[in-house]
Each structure stands twice: as structure tokens, then as C-alpha cells.
TrEMBL record, chain A:
The chain crosses the membrane at residues 45-63. This is Uncharacterized protein. The keyword Transmembrane applies. It comes from Alishewanella agri BL06. It comes from the Bacteria. Keywords: Membrane, Transmembrane, Transmembrane helix.
Automatic annotation (TrEMBL), chain B:
Keywords: DNA-binding, Sigma factor, Transcription, Transcription regulation. It comes from the Bacteria. Belongs to the sigma-70 factor family. ECF subfamily. Residues 114-166 form the RNA polymerase sigma factor 70 region 4 type domain. InterPro entries: RNA_pol_sigma-70-like, RNA_pol_sigma-70_dom, RNA_pol_sigma70_r2, RNA_pol_sigma70_r4_t2, RNA_pol_sigma_r2, RNA_pol_sigma_r3/r4-like, WH-like_DNA-bd_sf. GO terms for biological process: DNA-templated transcription initiation. This is RNA polymerase, sigma-24 subunit, ecf subfamily protein. One of its GO terms (molecular function) is sigma factor activity. It comes from Alishewanella agri BL06. Residues 20-86 form the RNA polymerase sigma-70 region domain.
Amino acid sequence: MKQQEDFSKLLADKLRATHEPLVADEALWQAIAAKVTTQSQRRAWPWYSLAASLAVIAFWTYLGANPAQNMSGHTPQIALISLDAELQHLLLTEPDSVEVALLLEKRKAMQINLPGSIEL
Amino acid sequence: MTDDLVRAAQRGHLPALKLLYQQYASGVLRLVTGILGSVEDGRDLTQEIFIKAFEKLPELQNVAAFAGWLKQLSSRMAIDQLRRKSDWAQPEILELIEAPDDWVQACDLLTQLDDVEELLRVLSTSERALVWLFAVEGYRHDELATLMATSEMAVRQRYRRAIVKLKATLINKVSHETARRL
């Protein structure tokens, strides 16, 4: 029995020595890292989608609760800014002209539909 | 130090995963290559083992047990792979026809042997796995019985049979070579 154990031990030593030079290299790690990254992205994707959906819902809810900031209010606001620029130019060049009077009327009308704008 | 590394790896921190790989991958590669008997298969399985280990890592409660947990996972996956092979079926336990006490001669022959892997080719896949796990990795008979889903007695008998087979092969090989020279 003792001799059999010696044989087993010797066999183990020889096998260990044969396999000792085996080393896990960088190429193997690259393959593992690529797979791990893909898996984690796949796991994270539903959460990103959910977060994006919640953000969209929150944005629309906010717009619904604040009519002054809703999307239809953005176009008149831009138009008002462009009208103000034109008016400012005319006030400097032809302050008493008919165009100035017309633009002032137009601005007044726009201002009624756009609460929060500065009254001239 | 390793515990902190394992905790960071549990959070999916890629540099921590890489450090764990650098620390343990060569050991895993040697273990599974030893069980499977092929470096190519060993590399493929090592890759699968680490992917599986990193996936299951957040479930590990005792981070200090990481090394043992990884070794157990590796052995189990290697045995599962062998089980899927056609020749895994456990061999019948035959009566051992043992020559007179020739273990001393076998030890001498084994010492002189250059290619020990060549000698192991006489074993079946399950015998090879058993020899590797018991002799090289130091698994106990009861642990091997659980791992291989068999009884402890069967493990003992199969191991002894495998060792006797190796001894007989060594002695026969030398007898043939001597006869050829004469």
C-alpha cells in the first residue's frame, strides 16, 4: 500500500511539473473581457430604456402642468425675440415711422398670448 | 487585499476582474487541462469558467472563500464537460489482476519516463479526471464521490484500478522494448 502511495505521489509530481509552464495569457483575458462587457451592457440596456422612457414621461407631464412653457409657446417666444430685434433697429433709425407703430401693435397682440413676456 | 478585490469585482469593476483573472487563471487553466487532457480544451473551458464565475460572483456571500469557490466551480464544469463526452460512462469495476508486488519497479520506470501525458492516454476520461483530482489536486474520496455523483467506495476502487492500469502499462512497455532489443 505504501508503495502504491509512493507511485501516486511520484505520478502527481511528474504531472504537476509537466503542466507547470501552462500560463493563462492576455489573449484569453481579452476574450473574457469582451464577453463580460457585452453581457453587462445587455443587462444594463433595459434599465437605460426604462430611464429614458421615464424621462420622456416626466418631461411631457411637466409641460402639461406648465402651459406657459408648453411646446406651442416656444414658437411665439422666438417670433417675439425676432420682432424685438427688428423694432429695436427701427427705433434707432426711424423712430417716428409707420412701421414702428405697426410693429408695436403686433407686439402687443403677441404679448397677450404669451404670459410672462416683458411689456413695452 | 484579495477580499477587497473580490468585493470590487462583485460590483463589476473591470480592472478588479482583470486582477482576479491574473491571480487565478493559470491555476484554473492547469486544473482543467489536467482533467480534460487537452490544452486547447482547457483554454476554452477556462474562458467559460471565468465568464460564469464573474456572472455568479455577486451571489458569493463569503468573499474570503473565493479561491475555493472558483476551484469547485472549475472542477464541476470540467467534469460536466467530460460527462457530455461519449466515453464518460463509468467503466465496470473489474477484478484487478495484479502482478506480484512490482510497485518499486514501476516507481523506477516512472522516474525515468519523459512523457507522462503519453502514459495517461491508457486511462478513460473519467479515470484520468479521477487521477488528476485525487493525486494532483488533493481532493478527498468523499469530495470526489459528490463531484462525480457516485459512491465513495466506487471512487476508491476506480482510483486504484486506474493506478494499477498505469503501473501495468509502464511495466509492459519496458518488457516490449526489452524484447524488441533482444
